[in-house]
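>> received
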Amino acid sequence: MAEAMLRARLAGRGLDARVHSAGFVAWPGPSPPALVAVMREYGLDLSGHASRSVTGTLVAGADLVLGMTREHVWGVLAHDPDAGARTFLIVELARLGTALGPRRPDEGLRAWAARVADGRPAGRPLGRPDDEIADPIGEPLDVVRATAARLDAAAGTIAALLAPGL
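>> returned
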């Protein structure tokens, strides 16, 4: 869900970005019907999505890594301890990025992410509990819709921060 929403929000701002998703528990088979149905409500097609696992290679090659929960972020850092300056909870990045301001036109994504990461309180775990978004797999449709709404709001904020003025 987050991958499709962020890709769509970035494309809507004219930013052609590579957006990929990976998790820590590979979901066998296609996306659950409730997720596909809710994404269809947003005009997004999730029917062809296939789950894949997080690897150190994926993390090392990413300019920005987003997780839905702190457990996801900690798992990323277990694969690549040096990825902390570019790994965030989705809502955390939207919150901290808004406080910092958008990426400058001449600024690379990793540099902007590092500036955002510098805004974190020192010596504390990444993100806040209220920055977390629980995975809605297996949940009723109303929970999936609420999750989609939070993801879409965060994706819209992040897209505006990454591609200001576009």
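>> The chain has a mean pLDDT of 90.
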